Amino acid sequence: MRDTRESRLLLVLLIAIAFALITVDIRGGEDSPVDGARQGAATVFGPIESGVSAAVDPVGNAVSAIRDSGERHDRLAVLEEENAALKARLGSDDRSRSRLKQLDKMLKIAGQGQYGIKGAQVIAIGAAQGFSWTITIDIGANDGIKRDMTVLNGEGLVGRVTTVGPDTATVLLASDPDFTVGTRMESGDELGFASGQGDRPLRVELLNGKAEVKKGDRLVTFGSQADRPFVPGVPVGVVSRVDPSGGGLTRTLYVTPYAAFTKLDIVGVVVEAPKKNPRDTVLPPKPKPTPRPTVTVTVTPSPEAPVDGQNQQEQ
After folding, report:
1. What's the CA angle centered on 180, arms 178 and 181, to 5 degrees?
2. Res. 154: pLDDT tops 60
3. CA angle in degrees (0–180, nearest 5) for 31-35-41
4. What is the pLDDT of residue 241?
């Protein structure tokens, strides 16, 4: 195009129109009348601009890559934290399910025996070597807990309360050598006294030296005067061994306790004794004996050998 008066006028007109469009676009913001045209242009020319920029601006690409890498690292860290929290929550849920199961079993025992109980969590355990076998629970005098109350869990007898603070209490476990509880044999009136032996079975001295006892028999608490420190009918354990009767005044038994004293978590303190002795109703159902297969042996008679005399006669 030649530099003429008409061409100059056209150039000035185009510049004026461009400035007018820019002014309208800026004042219009998101509602600009030229927004559609601008988006169309971006759709058409955007990929071309990106390609050109990638080709001519390698330093900018490197900075962008480093920035994106940092963002990806941050996102990864966040995901790792979320995963860790999820695992912790799942672990907590598993533990909660275990505790709910323990609580359900304990409430079942309380219901069967008509014991009024206060649930508690074990927050500490005493050393088992050279010291008393004890646990600390998270309820105390403010919760109505008193000395010499029976403590049980979903399995059976745990121990008795010995020391009470405002918000905690100490429980002497039935496994402690200084622990003694009166017992009664299931389906009978044979009485005795069970004593703790640490990590070994409880030792029970029956008052009747000629009592008929066998392995697998079960015992419950006999109960104390005024139900302190022991209420009656709480499952104690199963006879694992019986000493031969030597004609003495007492008979010695060894009893595997129902409660696992090394892994206690949820326990209950009996704050109200039953109005009636539950006797054996709180004991768990007896396990059904495993049927033994019967083997039948059939003997097939072998053919009799011929007698020598008969052989000679036939010959």
Report:
1. 160
2. yes
3. 170
4. 95
pTM of the complete model: 0.64
Closest by Cα among 179, 148, 142, 147 to 164:
147
Q: Which amino acid is it at 216?
A: G
Cβ atoms of 177 and 198 within 8 Å: the answer is yes
Query: Helix, strand or coil for residue 57?
Result: coil
Do you find a cis peptide bond into 229, omega within 30 degrees of 0? yes
DSSP lists the bridge partners of residue 300 as none
Measured CA angle at 228 (ends 224, 232), to 5 deg: 50
N-terminal to C-terminal alpha carbon distance within the chain: 146
Q: In angstroms, what CA-CA distances link 86 with 75, 76, 93, 156, 177?
A: 16, 15, 10, 35, 44
pLDDT digits (tens, 9 = 90+) for 55-79: 444 433 433 343 344 444 565 666 6
Write down the number of H helices and E strands in the chain. 4, 12
Structural Rg of the chain based on CA atoms: 43
Question: If you search the block for the tokens 């088992």, which residue do you land on?
Answer: 128
256, amino acid identity: T
For residues 304 and 4, give the distance between their C-alpha atoms in angstroms, rounded to a whole number: 142
Q: How far apart are CA 181 and CA 46, in angstroms?
A: 88
**Taking residues 30-55, what's their average pLDDT?**
46
Measured CA to CA in angstroms, residue 72 lies from 77, 78, 156 at distances of 9, 10, 55
**Which stretch of DSSP H or E encloses residue 98?**
helix 58-113
